[in-house]
Each structure stands twice: as C-alpha cells, then as structure tokens.
Amino acid sequence: MLQGKIALVTGGSRGIGKDIVLKYANNGATVISGDLIDPDYTHENVSFVKLNVTDRDNIKEAASKIKEQYGKLDILVNNAGITRDAILLKMKEEDWDLVVDINLKGVYNVTQGFISLLLKSGNASIINMASVVGLDGNAGQTNYSATKGGVIAMAKTWAKEFGRRNVRSNAIAPGFIKTDMTHVLPEQVIESVLANTPLRSMGESEDVSNAALFLASDMSKFITGQVIRVDGGLNL
Ligand code: NAP
Predict the structure, then answer these.
(1) CATH classification of the domain holding 158
(2) Which domain holds residue 42?
C-alpha cells in the first residue's frame, strides 16, 4: 500500500507511534522513526533518527540528513505527545508550558522543518495526532486539550495552504487507547470512560495505526482537512 513512500513518524519508539512505524514498514514504506530514545525494535525498512520536536536545530539536522538520503518526504506523522494533567485550579505554569512546547509548538517546528521535502513529493500526507479531548474538552486537561485542538486547527490550515501542491493534511482523534500514557489513569477514570463508550472497551494502538495507514495511502487521496475519531463512539 505504501511502496516507494518515505515516511517520518515522531515519537516512534513507543506506543501508538511504534505501531504506526511498523504498520507503514510492513506495507512497504521506508520509515524513519524520530524520537528521543532508541527504539526497542528493528525492521529492515525502519531507521532511527534522534529527534526532539522542541529542538529546531535538531530538526534542521534531521531534515538535511533525510534530504541527502531520499530527496523528499511523502508522509509526516506528528505523533509525539505528552500529558501533565491537573485541574485548572492546580495546573502549574511549567506544566502548561511543557505540554504546549511539545504537543503544539513541536508540531509547528517539525512540519515547518520538513515542509519543503513534503512539497517535493508531489503526493504527500501530513497526519497530526490529536485526541477526542481536542474536540470535546476534558476536565483535568486544560493544557493537553488546548494543544490537541490546536493541532486539529493546524491540520486544517495546512490542508488549505498546501492542497494545490497535492499535500493532504488530516488529524486523527483517538479516544482512550491502551498505552503507557493511559496506563497511569486511575481505575475510576477508566470505568467512567468505558461507561460512556458504546463499544465498551479501550482501543488498541492498532486501531489508530489502521487510520494512520488509510490517511497515508492513496485510499484517502480525496480526503484533506478532516478529523477521524478512533474512539469506540465515546461521547456520542
Ligand atoms: P506514549 O506511549 O507516551 O509515547 C509517546 C512518544 O512520544 C514516546 O516515544 C516519547 O518518547 C515521544 N516523545 C515525547 N516527547 C518527545 C519529544 N520532545 N520529541 C520527540 N518525541 C517525544 O504515548 P501514546 O499513547 O503512544 O501517544 C501517542 C500520541 O497519541 C500522542 O500525541 C498522544 O497525545 C496521542 N493520543 C494518545 C491517546 C491514548 O489514549 N494513548 C489518546 C489520544 C491521543 P520517550 O519515550 O522518550 O518519552
């Protein structure tokens, strides 16, 4: 499905990012996983680049390496993200700043750093990893939900800016997916999520990587500026 495509996935060492990297690689893409730490896996189609989404010099270096090696980029998945949850009354400014720096400014940094390579593709796809809380809000996540709403707005903006150059840009809004990020949630939060989820389960990374495969491939060639919810029907 992705033969001949060059893909970069940020935060590709763990969780949803790792699943997307391996799904793309198993579907024929050449994939670069950009992360802070080395991945605990190998695949013949996957290479690793140290990439901190908050470090614009680091991004510049990574972009020039990829330019030298491949001359273009077809798929960019802005997946790296963190949480620092607290209700507004207790949210520390440093936790606001950190989440905004990685989840929101990081997406701007990386996309700006790679846009000229994406424009060289002639058929490119940008995928921003948002969240249902970027659409619906969530108590205890002022910082995180603001960033996820922001990456949806950026995906739509880039759909308008780059559509005529055949760069598509979409967002995925996962609900609650089983990864390290949600592993730390208290039992009663999980129970209330499941009670509000018609499919009565949490999602798997694979559910998200399937949507990411669709948005990266030509199966979605007339889809841009959209948000796909992968959430089991949460909050319907
Ligand atoms: P995860 O398991 O915590 O993995 C996040 C990845 O991002 C890690 O590999 C992490 O690297 C990397 N990362 C963090 N800061 C980075 C930085 N400055 N530069 C580069 N990479 C960085 O999280 P996940 O659950 O897979 O989430 C992936 C994405 O999906 C995130 O954007 C998240 O907001 C979104 N999402 C997740 C859920 C869910 O239920 N899990 C729901 C909605 C949306 P380290 O290992 O070095 O920390």
Answers:
(1) 3.40.50.720
(2) 6-230
The answer to whether residue 66 sits within a structural domain is: yes
> How many structural domains are present in the chain?
1
Pick the atom of ligand 1 nearest to 54's CA: 18
76: Cβ contacts below 8 Å, ≥ 6 apart = 7, 8, 110, 111, 114, 118, 124, 125, 126, 127
Residue 56 Cβ inside 6 Å of ligand 1? The answer reads no
55 pLDDT band (50/70/90 cuts)?
very high
Model confidence over 86-100: pLDDT tens digits?
A: 999 999 999 999 999
Does residue 109 line the site of ligand 1, with CB under 6 A? no
Residue 184 CB–ligand 1 contact under 6 Å: no
* pLDDT tens digit sequence for 21-46: 999 999 999 999 999 999 999 999 99
